[in-house]
Amino acid sequence: MTEILRYAAFTSTPAGGNPAGVVLDARELSDADMLAIAAELGYSETAFLHPTGDRQYRIQYFSPLAEVAFCGHATIAASVALGERIGPGTVNLTTQAGPVPVEIAVGSTGGIIAILTSPPSSTRPASEEEVRPVLDALGWSADDVDTAYPAHVANAGNDHLVLAAASRDRLADLDYDFDALGKIMTERGWTTVHLFWAESPSVFHARDPFPPGGVVEDPATGAAAAAFTGYLRALGRLADDTVLTLHQGVDMGRPSLLTCTTIPGDSRVKVSGTAVPID
């Protein structure tokens, strides 16, 4: 019988963070089986690991509606679950988006910390044709956008539209057209729309609508955080020694904390966080 674990990632309490399903040995499951499990759990993603060697795994991610190439929070959840069973050290995950090594360590309070290295990041300016219908679906006007941060399509395993809110209040007031935004995102191949507000040059608040996965909003999105970090670096707003802090999930009652750092001379991004079992 398949053992299905439930973890909340990027949090130290089960009431916070982003819930993820984790199956540590999915070698006997078909894609249809995995999709059915993800749909029954109803979390934004469930991670399925296929052991291939010593601390080596092929990993697949499924939302309730489809397979996803890469998912940060489910990677953190799965890695913490592994760390609790096999101990600290590096595990090497093979995703559809490429290799993702994860450092597993014991934190100062005794809990497990997972630090993933994302697939290579890239970013490009979003066109007016791409941005305008998204603003319409969000119910945002041009004045609701912070032009200091240009809209981009950023990637670190998946494409995300990155869009800056002009104020914290604008970010907090999220009431969008689910079907309209979902249609746009599916046509463009975007996993989430990464909405953010800059509290400071290194502290940001974010929200990530995820209608293509059948989820109104993701409480913590590690893949989007990695893509966003790459975006900031490409704009020249983030030095290699800067630690980026992202607060997500606050407005939906599941506060999450994501920490990102760049790698000198490398387009990949390190994303770190904790995870705890959900009873």
Automatic annotation (TrEMBL):
InterPro entries: Phenazine_PhzF-like. Keywords: Isomerase. The active site is at residue 45. The keyword Lipid metabolism does not apply. One of its GO terms (cellular component) is cytoplasm. GO terms for molecular function: isomerase activity. The keyword Metal-binding does not apply. SUPFAM superfamilies: Diaminopimelate epimerase-like. It holds the Pfam family PhzC-PhzF. It comes from the Bacteria. Belongs to the PhzF family. PANTHER family: BIOSYNTHESIS PROTEIN, PUTATIVE-RELATED, PHENAZINE BIOSYNTHESIS PROTEIN. This is PhzF family phenazine biosynthesis protein.
